Fold:
Amino acid sequence: MDKAPDNKELSGSDIPFPFESEVGRRLVMGDICYYDLGVRKSDKELGKDVKFDHLNEEHYHVVPRKNKLDKIPNKTSWDSFSYALMMGHNVYCHIVAVQRAQQLMDIEIAKTKDKLTWKHWHKLKDAESNADQYSDWVPRNILYFASFIEDLFNTKTKDEAFAMIDSRQGKAFLTSLEGARLQGGNAQNKFNSLFDVEEVTKASEVDLENPEDQELRDLEQSVS
Structure:
């Protein structure tokens, strides 16, 4: 997933938001990057031995936009409404992704309906992992499951349905769909091998209710 630009130089920009969604196509970067740079004083105007401090209001001719705490944001150009816009964009993209997955599944099921049945399912060996894939979009077990569900609901009696579920083939197939925990072991957790996690021991160090809090931004960036 790409990161959206976060730069105070884009404040007021009419450049279109680069990511497609019903929300995104209505935005420009100035909608997301709200906080600006202001107009700072030159080094000469600040005086000898005075280093420019971007958080000091006295170092500006025009003070940058402040956050709701009446402070100049440290780095971020996003305000609370920027986060709300991004949240709407992300939710829309998630909904579209789910819908697209469902549509692809319908297509693949239609293509394999007369060729694939759960009765022919078997557990793959490593050498067969690629040979027994019927679709570039939908995992083989999902296609087999569609066949299983259709047969299950076509049974004539409740006893016949349970007999199908309890059959040797039925049990083996359904077990293959279970997660690692249901199969008797703990799910393999690769999170710690992919990310360095810094434990936050004091809740007061990060203002979780203030998305403009720089320490919160630093924490987000450290785990992203």
Observations:
- Residues 202-209 have pLDDT under 50 and may be disordered.
- The longest helix spans residues 80-112.
- The longest strand covers residues 60-62.
